[in-house]
Amino acid sequence: MSRYRPPREQGSPYITPEGEAALRAELHALWKVERPEVTKAVSAAAANGDRSENGDYIYGKKRLREIDSRVRFLRKRLESLQVIAAPLGDRDKVWFGAWVEVENEAGDTHEWRIVGPDEFDLTAAKISCDSPLGRGLLGKKIDAEIELETPSGVTRWTLVAIRYGAD
């Protein structure tokens, strides 16, 4: 059995202006702040002599590899992203960047913002446009019914409200 895994499918190339700013801030912090600090620590650890049993040196080099990997990913991803600042069409429909309020069969309401795969965060009420609910909501109008296949069965959601950042 081989260890080969096919590459992960890349998400949609869309991002909100806030999401792009957050990714650029992360890139700046990694490249201009954290990497120079870790480099200094590794240099100081290397000056101590034997590197084979020097924990500061070993873990510092590991952290440098992690930082470099994340920086490469961020640079490549930021080049390919398309910033979407305004709705792509009729404001009465759900588009990328919209805040939506949905109600489930039990009457519970939830409000989420539809964002790109690089910025989704359920704790901040942001769902990806690539998620099943996000895909189901795109292009819908108020009072539309969305059916989702879940492990526990089919769930139904009703779109209650749509708003955009400037609304």
SSE topology:
Blueprint (H helix, E strand, L loop, with lengths): L13 E2 L1 H30 L8 H26 L1 E2 L15 E6 L4 E7 L10 E3 L3 H6 L7 E6 L2 E11 L4
Parallel strand pairs: 1-2, 4-5
Antiparallel strand pairs: 3-4, 3-7, 6-7
Helix pairs in contact: 1-2
Walk me through this protein's architecture.
With 167 residues, this protein is α/β, with parallel strands linked by helices. It folds into two domains: 70 residues, Helix Hairpins (Orthogonal Bundle), CATH 1.10.287; 65 residues, Chitinase A, domain 3 (Roll). 37% of the residues lie in helices and 22% in strands. The chain is built from three helices and seven strands. The strands form two sheets. Strands 5-4-3-7-6 form a five-stranded mixed beta sheet. A two-stranded parallel sheet has the order 1-2. The chain is elongated. The chain starts with 13 loop residues before the first strand and ends with a strand. 18% of the residues are buried. The model has no long low-confidence stretch (mean pLDDT 91).
List low-pLDDT spans.
none
What distance separates the N and C termini? Answer: 55 Å
Strand residues, percent: 15-25%
Q: Any idea what the CATH superfamily of the largest domain is called?
A: Transcription elongation factor, GreA/GreB, N-terminal domain
The total domain count is 2
- How large, in whole angstroms, is the Cα Rg? 22 Å
Order of helices and strands: EHHEEEEHEE
